[in-house]
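stage 2 :: seqdesign
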């Protein structure tokens, strides 16, 4: 009923929207509170000092005071001295209050000025502007530490936002491409239904549809890696490498690429399924971005020679010379030849998510991925994985 009134104290029903900032009563500003605190402290200290002086003056003799100077007609009594002291103390406390309040206001303003700059930057960031930086100068203190931390947070937020934007744009392109190809083939078939090679058409539609499924599966895997920690168990990475080589053996034969394995027992702690996916992705990337003929791939596994609790996996292949920064290849949907899938003699073109998934899996296992171009062409990928997980 529209005339019902809400019950006071009833729990609010979640609406799924972000809650608005809670209303809070307006209080004195931090600057005013600091100024009042400085003034109060100064007056309390002054009052304590004057109280000590007044108590000391209580010991002035109580008998009448006299002087031998004939020019002095009147000598103040003990009560008159204490009364004058009280008046002077009152005026001194009023002066201390005014000076303390003014001085505290000025000092608090200078102390809190960096916090005001941080607040302005936070408001700009809340409005969506992530390119502003505080860059607080001066001696290192709590405010400069807070400023540097806030700037670092803005850097990470801006990078994440830009990566998210590129990912969304590239994902839209990647998902639209197979749909557009499928529609084109269907339009051609509708225009001339009797002049089609139906087995070939079905095969091409199946291949295009499979490519779309692979892109969606890879995107879902990237998303799950960011949310769910992997299950850790003892795994020998050398066995994982042999399984990955067996999985890609037919593709390597179709591409004419020779795969060599040089592995030693390399025990790690991690998710066996994800580690197998890591090696398969690296191996497929090395196979599909290789020489048109007589190419080669070398896989090695070994404990870290520097004695750290790491295992090193290296996948090196022959191929064309790489000129672009190879570290950009871990960005989703970016391929060795740009955003266009490599053709050539590849049996299957990649979708640009293999290396990003490898990087995420390595990070989830406490390691990392490093890429380096080979002097003679091709790429070397080095993955470090933690022994203890």
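stage 2 :: out
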């Amino acid at each position: 009923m529209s005339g019902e009134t809400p019950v006071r104290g009833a729990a609010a029903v979640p609406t799924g929207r972000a809650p608005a900032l809670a209303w809070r009563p307006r209080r004195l500003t931090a600057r005013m509170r600091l100024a009042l605190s400085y003034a109060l402290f100064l007056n309390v200290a002054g009052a304590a000092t004057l109280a000590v002086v007044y108590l000391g003056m209580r010991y002035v003799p109580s008998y009448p005071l006299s002087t031998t100077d004939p020019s002095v007609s009147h000598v103040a009594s003990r009560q008159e001295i204490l009364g004058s002291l009280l008046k002077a103390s009152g005026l001194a406390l009023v002066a201390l209050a005014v000076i303390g309040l003014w001085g505290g206001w000025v000092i608090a303003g200078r102390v809190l000025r960096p916090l005001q700059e941080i607040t302005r930057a936070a408001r700009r960031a809340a409005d969506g502007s992530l390119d502003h930086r505080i860059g607080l100068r001066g001696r290192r203190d709590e405010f400069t530490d807070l400023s540097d931390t806030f700037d670092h947070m803005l850097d990470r937020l801006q990078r994440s936002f830009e990566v998210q934007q590129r990912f969304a744009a590239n994902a839209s392109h990647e998902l639209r491409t197979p749909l557009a190809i499928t529609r084109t083939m269907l339009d051609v078939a509708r225009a001339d239904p009797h002049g089609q090679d139906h087995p070939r058409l079905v095969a091409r539609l199946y291949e295009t549809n499979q490519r779309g499924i692979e892109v969606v599966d890879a995107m879902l895997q990237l998303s799950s890696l960011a949310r769910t920690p992997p299950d850790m168990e003892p795994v020998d990475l050398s066995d994982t490498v042999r399984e990955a080589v067996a999985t890609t053996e037919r593709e390597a034969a179709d591409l004419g690429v020779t795969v060599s394995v040089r592995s030693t027992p390399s025990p790690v702690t991690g998710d066996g399924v994800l580690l197998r996916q890591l090696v398969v992705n690296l191996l497929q990337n090395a196979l599909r971005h290789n020489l048109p003929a007589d190419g080669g791939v070398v896989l090695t596994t070994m404990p870290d020679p520097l004695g750290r609790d790491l295992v090193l996996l290296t996948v090196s292949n022959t191929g064309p010379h790489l000129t672009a920064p190879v570290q950009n290849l871990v960005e989703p949907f970016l391929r060795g030849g740009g955003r266009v899938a490599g053709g050539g003699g590849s049996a299957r073109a990649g979708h640009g998510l293999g290396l990003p998934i490898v990087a995420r899996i390595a990070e989830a296992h406490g390691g990392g991925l490093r890429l380096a171009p080979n002097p003679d062409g091709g790429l070397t990928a080095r993955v470090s994985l933690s022994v203890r997980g």
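stage 3 :: structure notes
- The longest strand covers residues 295-303.
- The first helix runs from residue 30 to 57.
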